[in-house]
Design goal:
It is a single chain. The protein is α+β, with helices and mostly antiparallel strands. It has 28 helices and 14 strands. The termini are far apart.
């Protein structure tokens, strides 16, 4: 019996040893631990911290803030082991529950043995993130000729609905005029259309109007978050942002093909549309040094600025939230963190900054400026010859720090000596000593082999040296300084005898310094026999009064003929300076400076202090394989990116833009999330129509105006907006199926512009620097709204100087975006502030007065005629009998401006028909 027990014990020990020696099996040993303790938080699409332990590929990738969590063969470097055995209660996993030691040992051994996780054993599969409608090629049936109405009608028929009756011709005219120009039709346009309702002719007229570009540019600027200040707490002005705004207006008016429009905004500096690259830097930004002057803060600011560019490109052109992958792989879309930094590499040489605008017009202006400056220099040189002769009996101007001219009778000289006898302060300093012959040649230059000696000098590297006295360069940084306080001399020795008639000298020709000025001096020449003959000194100059500034030119002491010549030159000089001041520097543009690209790294958790591998410029890897060499030039990077986005084969580009156009006409796109076509965005209500529009868009040369024609001439667009189908309301209250035209309130800009239009005050001046809505154009806080506008302030609201994060006082309440974030779609709120602003603001009162003045000038003194004209201007119709009677009573008691004010506040004025 004892022997049997011993054998059994030995057998158990042997079996136990074999078990301990056997490799850990994932399915048998590891997965049960994950299932029991980890799956509650770390499985499925919503896994916490982005860490999934139910799928092999996801588990080895790791979480958002640490990854990979499982490092095969290295348990000590695997965050998974750290979290299950740490003593830190905030980090312990599972929270508040320590795994049994034997289970920790199993996980540790499993990783130490190579973390073997066989393929095909997972109980779930990761969804294919590319299996999404917007990531697939655009599909359209080209075999069957179709229209917009065909797609809408089929969808309505499926829902048991049908389109509403057509809108009245005038309702359509008012609707399409607002849609395409943002302004109401004039009474004359309404009358003409009533006589001859030519729908196509109206559309062509509106699309040809400059007002069209102003209207549709506003839609685009909403998306790219254009503003005229930087934003954030600093919110300093961008005084040269407006050329980009003007470019967008002009591009819409010219119907620039959309693929070209994309390229111009990304690489317009290579395509002759330099201002277009303002797109790259439209977003808010804190520049390096504004959030901290230390190097880590500067690196963070640079990352933030690049992030804004990548975000703008991704959401604007592709309808993708690429920026969500800055710290970790995108939670929903097939965009990895590496993809994100690869996109950064395309724009890694873009800086947020002003630079000269490089257009043919700007280049011509700069050439003209150079000619003006050259002529000014000639004029000043000619004036310098017209100073009084030394010792002519007329007191000469006192010495000054900039330029002093000693005009002498022609004399022969072999040497010239300039002796300083007194200064206004310290050791004397002369930045250039010039000696001219009658032909105007400076014979004192070292390049003419003139030698210079001095009583002594103080040398300062790159600033003061005797050789600088005759080097032809002006300014303190190229001057001679004596080593004697209040005195010293220099001698010029010419290589041959020269005839001279003028000596010019100064302390600092650039006008920055006025100390160390020689206020008493003597100039002598040696005719070649070794004797020194005096030719000029300070004795006939006005007494020095302590002012070292250059005095105004005086003709005192000049012969009559020279006075006449001097006056003509002075007049020309004045005009030249005025013209130079007007064009100095040329037009600048806030459109980014382009430089050698930064090296882009894959940052751990988006932290610029934790760089990983170098990432070359490459497009989103799930969509294409385009990757550029790391040393690709800056402009070629942006060109490659623009070409990829604008390819007809790109599944997103055309879809996103035609959806934006559709949204502009119906208030909401076929895809409601117009800047998010990813997996977290909305599904299209009419996917076949969207693809048909995208295909047609590309086939028609990416023409945006052609898209407008198709939409506004469709029967779907021409429907009535009347809500007279209760069954349809019950089934589709949001009108997504378009069983009627979905009426909506006008945007704040269109309301303001329309009030100016009907009051007769709208200033149609286009382009240029924006007018003020506030008492200042940038800064921290305290923006006081402008209440009374000059003529320039009565331009369309798109030309207002837009202060980021500061809504316009009256019309900002009507959901105008503040430029802080991209406004993919205007939201429509209803608040008491809107009614109060529109009824009581000084802007409304002024417009009401102006409208009443206009009406009184245009019609007779008859009150009823005036009321009819008010209705025609505001509503494009005559008043009904009851309206006319009621309005007459109001006007006779309170005046015509009160009626105008009431009309501005009516839904009929504020809402699309």
């Amino acid at each position: 019996m004892r022997n049997y027990i011993g054998l059994l014990f030995l057998s158990i020990l042997a079996t136990s040893g074999n078990l301990r020696a056997a490799p850990i099996d994932f399915v048998r040993d590891v997965r049960p631990i994950f299932e029991a303790h980890c799956y509650d938080c770390h499985s499925g699409e919503e896994a916490e911290s982005g860490l999934r332990l139910d799928v092999k590929s996801a588990a080895f990738k790791g979480g958002d803030n640490h990854g990979p969590d499982i490092v095969a063969g290295k348990p000590d470097e695997s965050p998974l082991i750290h979290f299950v055995q740490t003593d830190d209660e905030d980090e312990l996993m599972p929270p508040g529950e320590r795994l049994p030691e034997e289970e920790i040992a199993i996980l540790t051994r499993w990783i130490d043995e190579g973390a073997v996780w066989p393929d095909g054993v997972d109980t779930v599969e990761l969804a294919d993130r590319m299996d999404h409608w917007s990531f697939k090629p655009v599909q359209a049936d080209d075999e069957v000729e179709q229209t917009i109405d065909d797609f809408i009608d089929r969808r309505l028929e499926e829902a048991g609905l049908k389109r509403a009756a057509p809108a009245s011709p005038v309702d359509w005219l008012r609707r399409v005029t607002f849609d395409l120009t943002g302004l109401p039709p004039t009474p004359e346009e309404v009358a003409e259309f009533r006589k001859q309702p030519d729908y196509e002719a109206v559309v062509e007229r509106l699309l040809a109007s400059p007002r069209y570009g102003e209207r549709w540019a506003q839609h685009w600027l909403d998306v790219v978050r254009y503003a005229d200040t930087h934003g954030f707490e600093v919110n300093t002005e961008r005084p040269n942002a407006w050329p980009y705004r003007d470019y967008v207006i002009e591009a819409f008016n010219r119907d620039v093909p959309y693929d070209r429009f994309i390229r111009e905004q990304i690489v317009g500096d290579a395509l002759g549309e330099d201002a277009a690259t303002g797109f790259l830097v439209t977003a808010s930004v804190l520049l390096p040094g504004q959030i901290g002057k230390d190097e880590p803060s500067k690196r963070l600011a640079r990352q933030d600025s690049l992030d804004e560019i990548v975000n703008n490109i991704g959401q604007t052109f592709l309808g993708l939230s690429v920026g969500c992958a800055r710290c970790h792989d995108h939670k929903f879309d097939p965009i990895s963190a590496r993809d994100y930094y690869a996109m950064q590499a395309f724009v890694a040489g873009v800086e947020y900054a002003d630079r000269p605008l490089n257009t043919p017009e700007a280049e011509q202006e700069r050439r003209e400026l150079a000619k003006l400056k050259s002529r000014l220099k000639q004029v000043e040189a000619e004036l310098a010859t017209l100073t009084p002769f030394v010792g002519n009996g007329t007191p000469r101007q006192m010495v000054n720090a900039r330029t002093n001219v000693e005009r002498i009778r022609r004399t022969s000289a072999r040497r010239l000596r300039f002796t300083v006898l007194a200064t206004n302060r310290l050791e004397p300093c002369i930045d250039e000593l010039e000696v001219f012959d009658p032909e105007g040649t400076n014979v004192a230059l070292a390049s003419a082999e003139t030698k210079v000696t001095a009583s002594g000098e103080i040398q300062v590297a790159n600033r003061h040296d005797l050789t600088y006295l005759t080097d032809g360069k002006y300014g303190n940084s190229s001057s001679w300084m004596s080593n004697e306080k209040g005195g010293g001399w220099v001698i010029l020795e010419f290589p041959t005898d020269v005839i001279i008639d003028r000596i010019v000298w100064g302390r600092d020709r650039l006008g920055k310094y006025d100390d160390r000025l020689a206020i008493d001096y003597r100039i002598e020449i040696d005719p070649g026999d070794g004797t020194w003959l005096p030719v000029a000194d300070a004795s006939d100059r006005q007494k020095f009064d302590g002012s070292a500034k250059k005095p105004a030119f005086s003709t005192d002491g000049l012969p009559v003929e020279e006075q006449i010549a001097a006056k003509a030159l002075l007049d020309e000089k004045k005009q030249l300076r005025k013209r130079i001041a007007t064009s100095e520097g040329g037009q600048m543009v806030f459109a980014g400076k382009f430089r050698e690209p930064d090296t882009i790294y894959l940052l751990n958790r988006g932290d610029p202090e934790q760089p990983g591998e170098v990432v070359p410029a490459a497009v989103l890897s799930s969509f294409d394989s385009l990757e550029l060499p790391v040393d690709t030039a800056e402009q070629k990077r942006r060109m490659a990116l623009a070409d990829w986005i604008a390819r007809p084969e790109n599944p997103l580009t055309a879809r996103v833009m035609v959806n934006r156009i559709w949204q502009g006409h119906f208030g909401i796109g076929l895809v409601e999330t117009s800047s998010d076509f990813g997996r977290n965005g909305a599904m299209p209500t009419h996917p076949e129509l969207l693809d048909w529009l995208a295909t047609t868009f590309v086939e028609n040369g990416w023409s945006i105006k052609q898209m407008h024609r198709m939409i506004v001439l469709s029967q779907t667009y021409r429907q009535s907006s009347a809500v007279d189908n209760p069954a349809a309301v019950d089934q589709d209250a949001d009108v997504r199926l378009l069983w009627r035209f979905p009426s909506r309130r006008l945007e704040g800009e269109a309301i303001r512009d329309s009030m100016l239009a009907v009051s007769g005050e709208l200033n149609l001046k286009m382009y240029g620097r924006g007018y003020n809505l506030f008492d200042k154009r940038g800064g921290l806080t305290g923006f006081e709204p402008v209440e009374t506008f000059p003529k320039d302030g009565l331009r369309r609201m798109i030309y207002a100087h837009k202060v980021r994060r500061e809504r316009e006082a009256v019309f900002g309440a009507f959901d105008c975006p503040d430029g802080g974030q991209s406004a993919a779609r205007r939201r429509e709120s209803t608040t008491p502030i809107q009614a109060l602003n529109l009824f009581n603001s000084k802007f409304t009162l002024d417009r009401a007065n102006a409208m009443s003045d206009r009406v009184r000038k245009e019609v007779s003194e008859d009150v009823r005629d005036q009321i009819v004209r008010c209705y025609e201007l505001a509503f494009a119709r005559s008043p009904k009998a009851v309206e006319l009677d009621d309005a007459e009573e109001v006007v006779r008691e309170y005046g015509l401006p009160v009626l105008c004010r009431v009309l501005f506040n009516c839904n009929e004025f504020l809402v699309m028909p």
